[in-house]
Design a protein that fits this description.
By secondary structure, the chain is α/β, with parallel strands linked by helices. The protein contains 11 helices and 18 strands. Bound molecules: zinc ion.
């Protein structure tokens, strides 16, 4: 009888157990601090339900995580907040009440947070992402102006020809304020005239180090991450550009954090870049694949199957890096629908040829001609844009070279030479450094 009662108790317990919500364990917590925004990622086997609220005086963010264990990785978050984090002072983790883990972020300033879930993709499981943006968005143009002392604006730049006479205006002219993209102004007459004072500015080259943050890009046999190599080459390239009279490099990504593909395009447009150079390192399943290649945008489909494959892979960066889909981006839709990019693509092709030629002096070329495919990051309607696959990170000997400081510099010098020879043959159209009230159509 007793035995039967015991059996009944065990049976009832078994019936009851599945109804109890098993707490979700955080398998990894990562923090990506950057001036643009600080991102915090919590990874888990199941999606996490959450609640977010802000408290003022002092500024704090509170996140309640439902049915989440306050286990190791979540607790380790406390020590992962760096003292130089631009927005987070510190974080506290505690069990607020049964079934609720509470994170309290002490902030350094007022912020605009975004909290969202990402579905499993690539190597990642479910991710809960907290993005902390400054309450007042950063203005890349102001940053550029501060970085650029007046003395550096060029008087003797050989490469800019002021647009003092009528020009071929197949190119549409675009005005945008630094923070919000403005409607595209198409010149419905055939000419666009810029005021003469606009010519006294350097050429601005947007240098885009591929990938970053959660999106590490391709990985070499010896664990080299594409995102680190591309940043190293981009930094070198900026340094060399800034030493070049009449030229100024702007890093689209300045550290190890994620920027959406469209965000990269926007930032280049905000600083009125004359060119956009996206730096990557290729990967293939077979380790012998090697060599450099240069790509331009194609609106009509890829020039080869491998170009299409590569563009698809590079375009997946947004999925892996993690874009908050709840934030609608009207700019992107307009760009894709509204513009003929023919003139810009022609310029991009010319630029790509010059750069490819120079790359051929320091590395085998993977393909002897410029290739085209639908790379999302090359979709600036008005900025000639190219994507350079510097070498194959999946090829062990090229991986070694990509990690080598001297080779990175060689690579950067080759890219710069290509850009210079492009401008020597195709003088830049002058763009205003400050946009407001400076653009006049005739
Ligand atoms: Zn890449």
């Amino acid at each position: 009888m007793l035995k039967n009662i015991a059996k009944l108790v065990v049976f009832s317990l078994l019936l009851w157990l599945p109804h109890a919500q098993a707490a979700i364990a955080i398998s990894s917590a990562r923090v990506w601090p950057a001036l643009e925004y600080t991102r915090l990622t919590l990874e888990s086997a199941k999606p996490i339900r959450y609640e977010l609220f802000s408290i003022r005086n002092p500024d704090r963010l509170v996140i309640d995580l439902k049915d989440v264990e306050t286990n190791g990785p979540l607790n380790e978050l406390v020590s992962k907040i760096r003292s130089d984090d631009p927005y987070i002072k510190s974080v506290r983790v505690a069990r607020f009440k049964p079934g609720i883990a509470r994170l309290v972020f002490d902030l350094k300033s007022q912020v605009k947070p975004q909290l969202f879930n990402l579905l499993p993709v690539a190597k990642y499981n479910h991710r809960l992402v907290l993005d902390i943006y400054p309450a007042i968005p950063l203005d890349p143009m102001m940053a550029l102006l501060q970085e650029e002392p007046a003395s550096r604006t060029m008087e003797s730049a050989p490469t800019i020809s002021p647009l003092s006479q009528e020009t071929d205006s197949k190119k549409s002219t675009i005005a945008s304020t630094p923070t919000t993209p403005q409607p595209i102004i198409r010149s419905n007459k055939s000419t666009v005239r810029l005021r003469p004072e606009m010519s006294t500015r350097p050429l601005i080259i947007a240098i885009d180090a591929g990938h970053g943050g959660e999106d590490s890009g391709a990985k070499g046999y010896n664990d080299t991450y594409e995102k680190n190599v591309t940043l190293a080459i981009a930094r070198k390239l900026k340094e060399l550009m800034d030493e070049t009279p009449g030229m100024h490099g702007v890093l689209i990504r300045e550290g190890d954090y994620f920027i959406s593909l469209n965000g990269r395009v926007q930032k280049a447009r905000q600083v009125r870049a004359d060119l956009f150079i996206s730096i990557h390192a290729d990967a293939f399943v077979k380790p012998h694949a090697r060599g450099s290649s240069v790509f331009a945008l194609s609106e009509r489909g890829a020039t080869s199957a491998s170009a299409r494959w590569l563009a698809k892979k590079e375009n997946e960066a947004d999925l892996i890096g993690g874009v908050n889909l709840a934030v609608k981006d009207p700019y992107l839709a307009r760009t894709l629908l509204d513009l003929s990019q023919t003139a810009t693509i022609n310029d991009s092709m010319k630029l790509a040829k010059h750069v490819l030629g120079e790359m051929g002096n320091i590395n085998t070329l993977h393909g002897n001609s410029v290739q085209q495919a639908g790379f999302a990051v090359l979709k600036s309607p008005d900025i000639p844009s190219i994507l350079i696959e510097t070498a194959f990170i999946s090829n062990p000997s090229e991986e070694l070279r990509l990690n080598d400081k001297d080779y990175q510099e060689k690579m950067a010098r080759a890219i710069l030479s290509g850009i210079k020879s492009y401008f020597a043959k195709n003088p830049a159209l002058s763009k205003p450094l400050l946009v407001q009230n400076k653009l006049t159509s005739t």
